Structure formats: structure tokens, C-alpha cells
Amino acid sequence: MNTETMPVTELNGQAQPPLPPTPQKILRTVFREERLFLILSVFIGIFSGLAVVCFRFAIDWCRIYLLGTGAVLTPARMILAPALAGLVISVLVLHVFPLARGSGVNQTKAALYIYNGTIPPRTAVGKFITAALAIGSGHSLGPEDPSLQIGASLASALGRYMRLSRDRMRLIAPVGAAAGLAAAFNAPISAVLFVIEEVIGRWTAGILGSVVLSAVSSVVVMRWFLGSESLFRIPVVELKRPAELIAYAVLGVVGGLASVAFGLGIAALRPKCRALPQWTQYFQPAVAGAFIGLIGVLGAPQVMGAGYEYIDEAMHGQFTWQFLAILAGLKIVATLLSFVSGTPGGMFAPTLFIGAMLGAAVGGAEHWLLPHFVVSPGTYALVGMGVLFAGFLRAPMTSVFMVLEVSGNYSIVLPVIVANTFAYVISRGLQPVAIFDVLTRQDGLVLPSTEEQREEGILRVEDAMRAVSDPVLDAQVTIEQSLREAEGSEAGDFLVRMNPVGWQVIAKTQLKDSVAEGKGASPLSSILPLEMIPFLHPDHELDTALRYVDRWPLVPVVSRADFRTLEGVITQRGVLDRYREFGEG
Amino acid sequence: MSGLSRLYHEQQQALGARWFGRGVEDLNKRNYSRAVTEFRAALVYSRDDYSYQLNLAQALLGMQRTAEASAYLANLWDREPDDGLVNLELARIAARQGETNAALRYYHNAIYATWSRSQPEDPETARRTARLELADYLLRNNATEQAQAELIALAANLGTDPAERVQAGDYFLRARDYEHALEQYRESLKAKRRYPAALAGAGLAAFELGRYDVAAQYWRSEAAVNPNDTVNAAKLQVAETVIRTDPFRAGLTSVEKGKRVIDAFNATGRRMKFCPANPGLQAKWEKLKPQMTSSALRRNPDLMKEGMEVVFSIEQQSGCGSATPEDEAMVLIARARQGTEP
């Protein structure tokens, strides 16, 4: 652009050329915010995908340089690597990246509900470095939850850069979270469901499109760089006879109990570790790392790190069921140590590991007891992953779809649903507060519990409406006749049925005034306002009624099949009474 | 980003290849336990690598960890159902576990599969090995006819290598298909005239076919090349005895036939002295003894038949002491005699 022809503005008495438009300004001019949000979701996916790829590189490099390149680790490395890495991590977490502690799911949820979608970029950097060090050195944690938080942080930064509105900013962190999780897990559907089920807590069409777009684009990027291999080789899934579902139910029960033990362990030990003197915080990850290394030296190196390769082996019958059961128990201990010590890292991979080992152990034991009944013990490992997901993380829907997505086999749906239901019900019964809510409360935050939201009863209009006992006036008849009808009732306000459709409301006093003014022979419609009053249906949420009941003394509730059929009326008093009764339980 | 990615993948590939190389070395040395560890390490860097998984499966098989090996092989089979080596290994596992249908299916897959990728030797050799293994499996399971069919198909595709022909001949012998066995040995001898294994095999095939003069000829040639072969020397002696003593051989004069019958009859008498036959047969022998003269036999050809039947009965039922070549020869003549008139 020729600067000589540019318009000039006055600023502090000096002629200043106007600032060139910024990219975000141009985009905001061209697109409405909803569309911009969708486009931004794709970019969030791409950037999150790239970040997760780098995160994977970092974890693998840490593993190679800290633990060595071979499949058999030396005892010295097994103990020293996680211990020394733990020391470095604690210094970083305590002095440089204080928000990098923990898994990342709650932080993302807090960004949504408390911080208006803001997650400082420093948190993402901290999470990247400390989680890569922790997982790479053999701490029993996974990369998924940190990836989720890294994605959310990137999304938050992009949103701030684009100066999105507060509403959009709140939603942008979950969009990034889905992208990060999808790339880490190579499973976009599960990531979308998890974020909706656990982070956002509700289904809204507005956010769904963005979450899906970001998840898909991040997976595309991740596969571009890391290949499209699934995390596991899936065994042949067989359900030869429906009676085998009993065996899967047993797995659900065992998985539910294990979930409770795992969850209660974290809930009990985490505050105790935090209550220890401040100086111990420097050593807690190191001590946890040394213990995990010791478990490795004593014969179970499988518990170190994320352990996906061992999940794969468990699915293909490469361990005895007794050893699988031991591995499940040791992994619970190792993850407890890593997590309660404040080492940054995720719970997804350990949950899947424990579930797979437990599943394969239960399947193996059942096969040993009833060889013709339980045909394919490897399938139990796959189902077991879903069981722990449902029981421990309390994401029942995600757990089903995750197993489906990972296995690509629909014949597994029935066993998964059966086992997950048992696990979820047992876990819900024995540990009423879900693990993420426990952690949030321990951190002093009060975030809405998605589980409670899910199970919360919804009040509807039908719960507050009352039957029509007062006369309903007709707009075609005279005012005098209408008054005569109204006089027979104690009520002060009456509904008026309009012709051909529609409703109005009129007060008895207004009818009296009109008759006194000599308008008694006029039709009732002549004194009614032109604007119709709104009507409701019995299935409407009661919240909807709140929009109307303060403006109109009566709101008609009509049938969906015939809008002229009155089902009842709703009043402000009725609505408030119903809410009070609901609140009192 | 792509530079970082290249660096990462190059490192992963190099580490994978390094551990794979070590694994292959240990696998070749039959150090299966180390090989398993090394292949597992290689798979950490390239989880989906076909060769790594295949070699790990082979190492696991070496350690008799069949279930684990099967899991890897089944996975490889899902990826490439046409891979010959994977099918062959699965066939071996199925055969070991007694799953005959699966074993046959995998063996046939292996025979008609692609062998270029996973096998160091050439595809034809690999297919032949697979078919021979299948034939061996069928023979061990007494499915002789199926084995013969496989061997005929194998023989049709054999080249001129004398060792391969001998191997095929040996399998035909096991399948009791002596004609095809003899044919294979002869083909082998065409390529290598004084090949001891082929001469010995041809001798045995001809012997089983009752062609004792042909057998003797092969065994004599074999004895010339391999004088230390005592087993075939003993068989040669039996074959020569059959040739020398069989009264039913074509082209003998009636005098010579009579002489052989009398010799056989007397030999049986001598045998009965230290190895008594049942009393009925002994009485029969005693009754015929005075009639066994050259002139009587010339006059009455039925007597020759009757005398030899007593001889065969006594030879076949008496079982004491080690059989002399003469006894063995007489049993063979008796078997060949069924349906043959002197």
C-alpha cells in the first residue's frame, strides 16, 4: 500500500498512520466468531498434534538416555534413573513450574470453570519437560493426561491471541484437550467422548463440532509423523457362547474392586504426602522412583513407564495368569507411589495397564478352571482395560467406545458393557466420589462433578404445572359474558384462548374496568394486547418456565400434539415451590 | 519439525536394526533366550516390523514358548496370509498340538504361498521343504494315500539334483510307493551314476517290488562304491538267495525246478531238528519226504506244489533263533508265490 495515500489520524497532536490490521483482526472481520472458532479448532488440532509428537520424541529420548536402549535394564539404571530424574523433577516443579504437578485433567477442567479458559503456556512447557523426564525415566505414569493439558494450554494461547469472547475462551481449553488426548492415544472418538464426559460434562452441539475437528486433525498430524499403528495388536475376539458373559461379569467385579482399592489408595496417601514437611517435597518423587526401580530389579520391570508394550504382550498370552495378577498389583503400588509423590504424569496408561493385566489374569484363571468355557483369555485383557477405565476413571461411556475403537471389533461390545457396568456400579457404590473429583477437592477447588451432573435429576414443567380448575375464557365472546364466567371463580387471572390459535391472559379487575367503561358488549379480543403470551409443553425443562413466569401470571402448558389442548398452567409460585421442594430433597 | 522427526526415526531404526542383528546372530547360534530378549528390544524401536516379529516368533519357538510364538505368528498371518514361512511355522505348531485340520491348511498355504520376503533360501526349495514336511506329517499320521499324492506332486516339480531325488525316493519308500521310489532313484542315478544312496535306495525299492535280480544288481554296485555297508550287504545276500533258490522263477527247466524244491524241502527238514514245527506240519513233512525225488516230481507237478506249500508253512510258522538268509528268502518266495504257479 502506498503510504502517501494512507489516511492519517491525529494522536497527541501528531499525525500518525493507522496501525496495519493484525491477522486476528482480519480473521475476525471475515468470519463470525462461531465460524472462526471452528477454523481455529483445526489449527488447535494441528498444533496439539505437533506438540504431542514432540512429547513422544522427548519421552523416548529420555528413556533411551536414562534407562538404556535394551529390553533388559541394568539394576543400577533401574533404580538410579527414576530416582535422579525424580530429584530434578521436584526442583522444577517446586521452583519453576508449580502448576505442572498432577495429571492435567483437573487443571483443564479448572481452566474451563474457574480461569475463563486460561492455562498459562508455562504450564504446558513445564508439563512437557517434567512428564517426559518422569515417564522416560521409568516412573509409573502415562503420557495421555499431560498431552491433554498441553493441547489445552496451546488452545488457550491461540484463543487469547485471537481475542475470543469469554464464552468461547472457556470452551477452547476442552477443544485443545481433546486434540492432545486424541494424538496421544491415537483414538479420536475416545478422546472426544472423554473430554465431553469428564471435562465439559455436557453435550452441546456448539462444542461438539469443534472438539471433533480438533481431535481428528491432531490424529492426522500425529499419524503423519509417527505412523498409523494402533497401540496394541488386537487378539482374536471370540464370544462363543452367551454364558461366557458370566465370566466377563466376574472380571467386572474384580476390576471394580481393584478400581476402588486404587482410588482409595490415592485418596488416602496423597494428602498425607502433601502434609509432610516442605523439604520432603524435594525427595518424594526421587524416593518413589527408587521404589519403582526396586520393583523392576526384583523382577517386574514391566511396571516402569507407560508399559504399552506389555499390555500388548498380555493380550497375546505371553505371561502366566499368576504373573499377570502380580503385575496388576505391583502397577497399582508403583502408580500410587509416582502419583502421590506429585510427579507429573498421567493416569490413563497405568489404568489401562492395570486393567489389561487384571483382565488377562482373570481370563487366564477362568480358562485354567474352565478351559471350554473361556476360549480366548487375551480378549479379557482388552475388556479389562475398559473395566478399569469405567471403574477407576469413572468414564463409562468412553470406556466402551475406547475398547471398540482400539479393537475395531463390534463383537466385543457385549462383554465390555457387561463387565464395565459391574465395575462402575461397584466402584460408584464403594467410593461415591470419583477420583478426579477427589483430587480437585484435595486441591481446594470446587469444580462441578460431571458424575453428579450426569446423575442429577432434571425438573420439568410437568413437575410444577397444575391442572386448570378456573374457567378458560374465549376471545370471541363479549367482555360482559367473560366477566360473568370469571365471577364464578376465586382466581384473579384467567387464560384466554385466541382464535384460531394462541393464548392470552387477563385479570378479573381488567374485565371489571372494561365493563364499567361501557365496553361490556365488545368482544374480549378488543381489549387484549396483540402480542400472544408464550406457551410451554409438559416436557420442557423447568428452567425454561423461569423465563416467562415473572412476566405473565399464568403460562399455559399445552399438548405437543394439539396446541389448543390445554394440559395445565404454570405460575411463578408453582415453579418456586417445586424448586424449594427439590432443594429440600 | 520434519528434521526432528527424521532424527528420531533414524535413531529408532538404527537401534532397532542393531538389536535385530544381534538377535539374528543368537538365533543362528540357537541361543534362543538371548535372541528373544534382543528381538524384543528391536521391537521397542519398531513395534510393527514384520521381520522383527517373525524372528521373535522363531526364537520363541526355539524356547518352546509356543503360545507366545503363536500369538506373534497369528498377528503376522493377519497382516500377510500369503507369507510362506509364517504359514509353515503355524503348520508346525498346529501339527505339534495335534490340530490336524489346521496343520494341513497351513502346510498347504505354505506350499502355495509367497516365499520371497521372509525366507533366506529360494522359494522353490522352501516350497519343497514345506511339502516334504507335510508328507512326513501325513506319514506319521498314517495318512499314506494323502502322503503319496503330495509326494507325486513334489516329484513332478523336482529338478535334476540327485540328492533331492534320493530324498523324494526315501519318502516314497516310507509311503510304500515302491514304483515311484525306484523311479526317483533311477532319476538320481541318471545324474550321478555311482551315487551310493541312490543305489541303496533303488535296491531296496526293487527288493520290495520283488525284483530281486534288479535289487541285487543295484546293491552289488552299491557294495562296490561303499564296501562298509553291512546292512545292504545282508539284504544282497537274501536277494541272491531268493534268486538262487526260488523254484518258481520263470525260465527254469523242470529238472532245475525239482532240484530247488528238494533242496528247500531238505533245508526245512534240517531246520525242524532244532526248531520244531507244529506236529501236524511235521507229520505232513514226514509223509511227503519219501516222495520228494526228482523223478517223482517230474511225473507229478502237483507234488512239487504240495511240497513247497509244506515248506512255506513250516518257514512261516516256526520262529526260533535268528533267521538265516535261506529262511528269509523262503518267506519272501512264499509271499511272492501267492497267485503264482510254477
Summarize the structure in words:
The complex is a heterodimer of chains A (585) and B (342). Chain A is mainly alpha-helical and 585 residues long. Chain A has three domains: 23-226, Clc chloride channel (Orthogonal Bundle); 244-448, Clc chloride channel (Orthogonal Bundle), CATH 1.10.3080; 461-583, CBS-domain, CATH 3.10.580. In chain A, 62% of the residues lie in helices and 5% in strands. In chain A, α21 links the parallel β3 and β4 (493-497). In chain A, α8 packs antiparallel against α16 (396-407). Chain A is elongated, with a radius of gyration of 31 Å. Chain B has 342 residues and is mainly α. Chain B folds into three domains: 10-64; 65-242, Serine Threonine Protein Phosphatase 5, Tetratricopeptide repeat (Alpha Horseshoe), CATH 1.25.40; 247-337, no CATH class. Chain B is 76% helix and 0% strand. Chain B is built from 18 helices and no strands. The radius of gyration of chain B is 30 Å and the shape is elongated. The termini of chain B are far apart. Chains A and B meet through α2 and α12 of A and α1, α2 and α4 of B.
Low-confidence spans of chain A: 1-11
Cα-atom Rg of chain B, whole angstroms? 30 Å
How many domains in all of chain B? 3
| Biggest sheet character of chain A | 3 strands, mixed
Strand tally of chain B = 0
Shape of chain A: elongated
Distance between the termini of chain A: 69 Å
Number of domains as seen in the coordinates of chain A: 3
CATH superfamily placement of the largest domain in chain B: Tetratricopeptide repeat domain
- Terminal residue distance of chain B: 96 Å
The CATH topology of the largest domain in chain A is given as Clc chloride channel
Q: Give the strand line-up of the largest sheet of chain A.
A: 3-4-5
Quaternary structure annotation: heterodimer
The CATH class name of the largest domain in chain A reads: Mainly Alpha
Integer-rounded radius of gyration of chain A: 31 Å
